[in-house]
Amino acid sequence: MIDTDEKHHVVTIEINGVRQTASVEARKLLVHLLRDDLGLTGTHVGCDTSQCGACTVDIDGKAVKSCTVLAVMADGSRVTTIEGLSPTATTASHRVQKAWQAEDVPQCGYCQSGQIMAAAALLTKTADPSDEQIDQAMTNICRCGTYQRIRAAVHRAAKEA
Ligand code: FES
């Protein structure tokens, strides 16, 4: 039984293919529901001010910074996190993850899950994006400055579709 009161709301969200029901505070951000309540710590918090993109997840087919979304706003949505792209250690990696590895994209790696989620969302809509389309879609800040390698990885993943 879900304990709820006027400050809490019951939400049902499909997360990585599994329907999850939770009682959340009205002010709780989706990123905190994912990380703190559900243990999906592959989604990172870099700035908490909607600038860095480290917290990017897929919501109903769109790359969204999960620190900009209240958990109650995601009620009824389908959310995929980095864990959902490659659900188990024995599951083959997603083509974007393979491309990231092949192009040696990450340096510190902190922001890469958000970048990969943004790239995967781009490629579902645009099969063979231009450099400009990649730059536009990748609103993720990489403090290590691996932008050329990010472009190369997205092009590689596009070819491997
Ligand atoms: Fe969400 Fe930086 S933590 S954009």
Structure description:
The termini are far apart. This protein folds into two domains: about 10-85, Roll (Ubiquitin-like (UB roll)), CATH 3.10.20.30; about 95-160, DNA polymerase, domain 1. Helix 3 (about 95-100) packs across helix 6 (about 145-160). The chain has helices at about 30-35, 80-85, 95-100, 110-125, 130-135, 145-160; strands at about 10-15, 20-25, 55-60, 60-65, 80. A five-stranded mixed β-sheet has the order 2-1-5-3-4. Strand 3 (about 55-60) and strand 4 (about 60-65) form a beta hairpin. Helix content is about 35%, strand content about 15%. The radius of gyration is 16 Å and the shape is elongated. It is α+β, with helices and mostly antiparallel strands. It is built from six helices and five strands, in the order E-E-H-E-E-E-H-H-H-H-H. Bound molecules: FE2/S2 (inorganic) cluster. FE2/S2 (inorganic) cluster binds near residues 48 and 53.
Count of DSSP helices? 6
Which architecture of the largest domain per CATH?
Roll
CATH topology of the largest domain: the name is Ubiquitin-like (UB roll)
- Helical coverage, percent range: 25-40%
The CATH superfamily of the largest domain appears as Beta-grasp domain
Q: If strands are numbered along the chain, what order do they take across the biggest sheet?
A: 2-1-5-3-4
| Oligomer state of the chains in this structure | single chain
Hetero compounds = FE2/S2 (inorganic) cluster
Strand content: 15-25%
Task: Tell me the structural class.
Answer: alpha+beta
